[in-house]
Amino acid sequence: MSAGALPGFRDFYPETFAQRSWLFDHWREAARGFGFVEYDGPPLEPLDLYTRKSGDEIVGQLYNFTDKGGREISLRPEMTPTVARMVAARANALRKPVRWFSMPQLFRYERQQKGRLREHFQLNVDIFGEADVAADAELLAVACTVMRRVGLGPDDVKARVSDRRLLAAVLHGLGIAEAATPAVFAAVDKIGRDDDAALVKRMRDAGVEAEVAGRVLDTVRASDFDALARDFAGNADVEAALARFAEYRALLDAHGVLEYLQLDLGIVRGLAYYTGIVFELFDARGEFRAICGGGRYDNLLKALGGVDMPALGFGMGDVVLGELIVSRLAPGETPPWASANAPDIWLAAPEGEPLAGTIRAARALRECGLRVEYPLRPMSSSKQRKAAWSSAARYLLEPEGASADRQYRVKAVAERATPQGQGLAQQFEGRTATIEEIVAAWRTGVGGATDRP
RNA sequence: GUGGCUGUAGCUCAACUGGUUAGAGCACCGGACUGUGGCUCCGGGGGUUGGGGGUUCAAGUCCCCUCAGUCACCCCA
Question: What ipTM describes this predicted complex?
Answer without folding.
Answer: 0.85
